[in-house]
Sequence to fold (146 residues):
Amino acid sequence: MAADRQARAEATIPPAARMNLPTASGRRLGVLLRRALALRCPYCGGAPAFAGWWTVRERCPNCNVKFEREEGYFLGAYAINLIVAEILGVGAVIALLLWSDLSTVAMQIIAVAFVIGLPLFFFPYSRSLWMAIDLMIHRPSESPRR
Ligand SMILES: [Zn+2]
Fold:
């Protein structure tokens, strides 16, 4: 019993019965994106992947998968967050320039607040989207590392 619990604690791949992902790519992508936007475990969807706004759980409470598979795993999430902040920040500036009568200083204040605030808001979503993208590309059965 204790050995069974130990083996389960060391497992990084959820048992197939607990991993609830469609095999068809289209459905799988939809399920993964829904789970990412809900900040749920990408593997099973059965539990929140985050303990707080800034903290990814070490393991899923439901399927026991280890979220941060290796050191530096979430580097891709930082890239996603940066790209989204840049695109939306530039979009906000263009929208302000085209459709507002605000002064230049007011537009700069809004743009700076937007560019600082958006990455903070988007932080957990960038991580959950990164996990979903990674799981879409590297399916657990294809990688012995998990
Ligand atoms: Zn899970």
Summary: Residues 5-10, 142-146 have pLDDT under 50 and may be disordered. Helices lie at 2-10, 25-37, 75-99, 104-137.
